[in-house]
Each structure stands twice: as structure tokens, then as C-alpha cells.
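Lab notes, practical 5.
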Amino acid sequence: MDWMGMDLYLFRDEAVVFYVGQSSLAFARVWEHLLGGFKGHSMMGRFVWCNWPVSMRFTIELRSSQSEQFNLLGNSLTAAERELIRQWSPCFNVSQNSQPTPLPNAYLPPNAPFRRRRSLTTLLLEAERAVKKEDDQRWIQELE
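Output from the prediction step:
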């Protein structure tokens, strides 16, 4: 299934799911979170920017409510989202989640001040440089 069919998304690291959401086009909604967070309109996006550059290591999983995993739920988008929230108890999903996972101490909360300049272009350039640096280091290790 291609990314256009993905209607569920999870923001996570290797140990904790921060947020589960649904949208008819999950890929676009993730971008809305990131851009909205920069302006203070999305708690999840704000969390990503407050934890920059550590948040570059977060994983964003895109899933489909139409996948086999959700067949028993009738492939209902709302039921699939509810099931993922039940399964993972994300930190920032407070509705339908009686016991959200506490935010790990390693991370700043979404209401923390930005540690970087408030320029999206600068942040994207930093990300590009960091990824290139990691790629270069991997390439050097492969040569050795």
C-alpha cells in the first residue's frame, strides 16, 4: 500500500509512543503538526521543535486502517485509532486514554521554550547538515 492510503500515524521513539492520530491523508497531517508546532498551533509539533535536534531521531509511523491488522474492527478508522491508543497509551493522547504514559524525563514538554532560533528554514538546514554528517560517518565506517 502506498503512502496515500495511510490514514493513521504515530509519533514515537524507540521506547514510547508520544501521539496517535488519524487523518484521511496522514502524511499531510504530520506536516501540519510540524508546521503548526512551529507557530504554536500543534502540541505534538511544538513537542518536536522543543526537543530539537534530539527529535530528529523520532520515528513517524504511517499505517492504514484498511490493513489486515484492523480487520476485526471492521477496518473502521476511528476504531483503529482507538485500538492503537489503547495498545500504546501515548503520552499526549488524553481522550480515549485513561492512563497516558508519562513523558520520559529525557524530553522537554511541549510548553518549554525553543532552544533554537525560531526560523523553520534554519532548522531544516540544520537537519540536512546532521543527516549528511551521519551519512558521511557511515560511509567512512564502511570503507574501514
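Observations recorded by the TA: The chain has one domain: 3-115. The longest helix spans residues 120-143.
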